[in-house]
Amino acid sequence: MSSRVTSLRRSQVVRAATQSPVLRDLRHLDSIPRWWLKKATFADPSPKVVKQKDRIKWWNIVPGDQVRVLGDRESTIREVLSINRFSNRVYLKGIRNEGESSQQPPRSINVHYSKCQLFIGKHEFPPVDGSTETRILPVFATRLGTSKPTWNVVKHCWEWKRFAVNTTPRLPHWSKEIAADLSDRVQIPWPEKEPEEKAPPTDYDTKAEVVAELTYEPSPITTRLLDPVPRQHLQGKQERKYLNSVLNPGAPFDKTAAMEVHVEQELSPIHSRAKKQKRWQELQAYRRQLLHDYIAAEMAPEKMRKHKTSKEARAWAVFKWREKMQEMQKAEKQRRWVNRGAQARLIRKQARKAKKAAREERRLKELSLAVADNQIIPEGVPTRSPQP
User: Fold this and answer.
1) What residues form DSSP beta bridges with 89?
2) Which of 81, 100, 113, 237 is exposed most, by the fewest CB atoms within 10 A?
3) Quick one: 164 exposed, middle or buried, by C-beta within 10 A (0-12, 13-18, 19+)?
């Protein structure tokens, strides 16, 4: 296997599951280096990839289709949620069973591409022997045919048509000769994406005409340094200040004025080395100033009455300053712990543990043994009839 891949990235392999039915490239057929499949840490996802020769080139099952899984006795029709072209897996939406909570979404399943049969629709079939009523049965495609794929220059994707060559149950007007004819094949349309429903506007939403209103009036004076400076008699007081701010970025300027200002500080990254150093220097200056304030407070005449010497007063000031520094460090550690999401994960973990304990307790309360031989019920224990 080649260790160099030019058109494919590792992030595309790790996050290969997609909900888009459009095929824009054939990168899923490229070779993948082995080290891409290794996990750097325990929390990293482990991508699963089949061999290059086993990958499917043209996918006829895409998100939005309705399929059934081979081997399902109930022949439940499920909707395709997403697909993974590197592992040949199809992710299907789960079905909510009776008695399940409506707040918790149903759990999805994933199956191999070969275990899915496309749902064509419900068709009428002749009645069985001894009956006069027609039957309406769901029809699934057991064999698919496609047209020649073509590249759509406008949409930047591959396009082709898919047909049902054979179905189960077989359509009544079909025969082996008719099924071989291309004109009589059942074309299966591609799923169409439903338009998103827009929520009705509320009092907190901004109206469209307010958003489209132009409220910014640029300054009539050019901001380019190479352009000629306008004459003095055409300039007002505000224009003079603006020109001074353009020519001297360090000069004070009224930031509330409705004209351009220097935004290099706002646009520069906050994690640059210069800004980190500036914040560190400001923190050190704040610590030194806080220590001086504590020492000055302890050396005050009303505090010196409690201390024997100035050395003892300074020691008390340093002690209080160190306690303050420890509190600040704990508060900063707590803030970072909350910002990185650890608090939210802890709350979710506690909720899961509580639900698990409640389930175990409910199972123990509802536990019942079937009546059988060689069973002795201790005296004083109430009996309960077994559930049917």
Assistant:
1) 84, 112
2) 237
3) buried
| Cα–Cα distance for residue pair 174/186, rounded to 1 Å | 10
Residues 6+ apart with CB under 8 A from 36: 10, 13, 47
Amino acid at 64: G
Say if 247 falls within a structural domain.
yes
Give pLDDT tens digits for 111-157: 999 999 999 888 888 888 777 788 888 888 888 888 999 999 998 99
Query: In this structure, are 42 and 124 located in the same domain?
Result: yes
3-state secondary structure of 31: coil
362 part of a folded domain: no
23 secondary structure, DSSP code: B
Question: Does residue 106 have a cis peptide bond before it, meaning omega lies within 30 degrees of 0?
Answer: no
Tens of pLDDT, residues 9-27: 888 888 888 888 889 988 8
Query: Same domain for 45 and 158?
Result: yes
Are 289 and 143 in the same domain? no
Give the separation between CA 173 and CA 168, rounded to whole angstroms.
13
pTM for this predicted structure: 0.50
Which DSSP helix (H) or strand (E) runs through 296? Answer: helix 273-298
Same domain assignment for residues 163 and 281? no
What count of other Cβ atoms lies within 10 Å of the Cβ of residue 140?
A: 21
89-95: long-range pairs with CB below 8 Å, 24+: 89/17, 89/48, 89/113, 90/61, 90/116, 91/17, 92/67
Whole-number Å distance between alpha carbons of 50 and 96:
31
* Of 86, 84, 85, 66, the residue nearest 76 (C-alpha): 66
Give residue for tokens 């000769």.
Answer: 177
C-beta of residue 74 within 8 angstroms of C-beta of residue 93 = no
